[in-house]
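Chapter summary example: a protein plus adenosine monophosphate.
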Amino acid sequence: MSFSDLGLLPELLRAVADKGYDSPSPIQIQAIPAVLGGRDVLAGAQTGTGKTAGFVLPILQRLSADQANGTLRAPRALVLTPTRELAAQVAQSARDYGKYMQLRTYQVFGGVSINPQISALRSGCDILVATPGRLLDLAQQRAADLSKVQVLVLDEADRMLDMGFINDIRKIIKLLPQKRQNLLFSATYSDDIRGLAERLLHDPLSIQVAPRNAPIELVEQRAYRVQKEQKRHLLVHLIQEGQWRQVLIFTRTKHGANRLTQQLEGAGIQAAAIHGNKSQAARVKALDMFKRGQVTALVATEVAARGLDIKELPQVVNYELPNVPEDYVHRIGRTGRAGAAGEAVSLVSSDEGGLLRDIERVLRRSIPVLPTPVFKIVESAPQSASNGNRGSGDRPQGDRAHGEARGNRPAQGQGRQGQNHGGRDSRRAPGGGGSGTRSFGQQQRGRFR
Ligand code: AMP
């Protein structure tokens, strides 16, 4: 199966070829013809499956077909997303895939000034990507005209409901023409999602590419038991020992994300935090630096990290386990994308044993708990220090080795290289080693069922 078999226009095939994709992913194979044919779609698909191209490509094609609709371009496709980051990513995809077409895409989200968005919307666009709250504000100020919307997409609908957007979504839907195409993408199916789907969709094509709670085969998972207050030291050890270049770390709270970021910086590891309290500019900057390799560790809360498309992320760390087991699946879904192998490491303190078991139950497999490597306690400078807190020294009594090794007595003395969990190389997941062409081929098959 190739993209040209899906009935896409040459302009889109060219843009897809520019991206280096050699074949469509399973969700694209199913969704593209259905959306081109005007059908409603209910898709169970998480980030990493290629879902964005699954709806963006056919929408671009449909919109390009009836270009001449008046002089002022009110949006004809509306994509709602839970987070600013996802909105920006979807909009960027629409621009990338539509680069040989004359369609305009614009994104709006909260956390930034509304006035530039008002003026930009005045100059018109074909595809509008928005987070619900800001879109509603714009609509109420009559800056967004939603009366021409022909296609509505709810992307990551489950997360939008989790974030309490249901009322905003309902209000937005009331502003849309009754006759329109509706596409709903959701990684999980709760009763709320089913209810929403029933109200919204007409005779939808149901697509399921990642069965609910499917384990992500490409990701090598492991856990270490460690006391809560020692987690940061173990993390520093893992990053340094493994020479990790890019690691996404999940904490439960915004405050925890800030604190850990400072602690990592204190240990000489370039780190940045990304969470809802940060300004949009700070979040974009942090993400950008992380993507460009200027920051080694990106510390994120669940919600902020949702939908982040970071290419071929090698490492994810659950600094704290999520309370909701399904979130574990989303988190580790950040790694091993587009053919690259990834590793997911969970740091499990004694009070988190139950959470680990819940996750294993949902995954229907156990996560190997490896002997905790020997690590050193490296104190960072006091957090109040405004600068100069980098690399501020090992604790003088130093070289105190830690490790709650299960069945593996922590070595005394130097907690340095080479003594830890050995065999990193032997644990490399299959399918790594990127080739020039990005493929959803054989090695990924397990992920895209
Ligand atoms: P998504 O699930 O939409 O977030 O996409 C995940 C990643 O897969 C993105 O980086 C896309 O650029 C990439 N991608 C989408 N479709 C394909 C394809 N057919 N072949 C290879 N990579 C793809």
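Key point: The longest helix spans residues 51-65.
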